[in-house]
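Before the break, one more example. Copy the sequence into your notebook; we will annotate it together after we see the structure.
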Amino acid sequence: MELASSATVVAVKRVGLLEGVDDESDGDSEGGFVAKFDLSAYMHVPLDSERFVWPSEVSIRDEQRRHREVAPAAADENGLVRVDGKLWVPREARDLLQRLLVVTHCGPQGHRGSDVMVTALNDRFAISNTKILDARFLRECLLCKHVKGGKLIQRPWGPTTTATQRNECLHMDYLELGESYGTSHYVLVLKDELTHYCELVAADSATSATAAAAVLDWHKRVGLPEVWESDNGSHFKAALMQQLAEWCRSLSPLY
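Here is what the structure looks like once it is written out:
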């Protein structure tokens, strides 16, 4: 079985997803840790699965002992403080809380919203003001677009086209290939909406001249599409493309 990458292993180790792994131990190198544990089975485990492992009771017990003066109840025979059957997590245990928030928010489930996160935490742990902690964590997430409010302006949804015949609607977009042995760092993708027929055009840069030439070549081979659709990038909005669109047919943005 193929092992997960070292970067994934280190990330999982830090948030304490693996049962039987000492959270505080730094003795294993990244290579030794990869060789010892196969993490592929843990990469796509839902939070409500029996195979999923939250941060260990040992780490929670250690934090409870550090903050025993504010504990809401006495410890049980295992040295753990529970409130209504749930493990108590001190508000002062910032590192532990951060790990719990990361586990409930990120991962294969995507960037989950506030209600789902609060429910997952409250079902298992006794944490005061969970909603406040959760809201603060979500505000600081750089990838969540559904919690940014006015800081992120979503593009309005526009009308979509539905092709009913071949070569009725042509989609186009640039893909960046990155560094390579040659000079072509981009590829322009032309795709017919109905048949999914594609043409790929290698390009040194994402320019309107390349896009215009590609559309003309498409026109020579299979005819002129009635509608062109793009992501409205600058290379598709340039004067050259606008003149070509006016001369040919129409250019429709996705939004």
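The chain has a mean pLDDT of 72. The two ends are 43 Å apart (CA to CA). Try to locate both features in your own notes.
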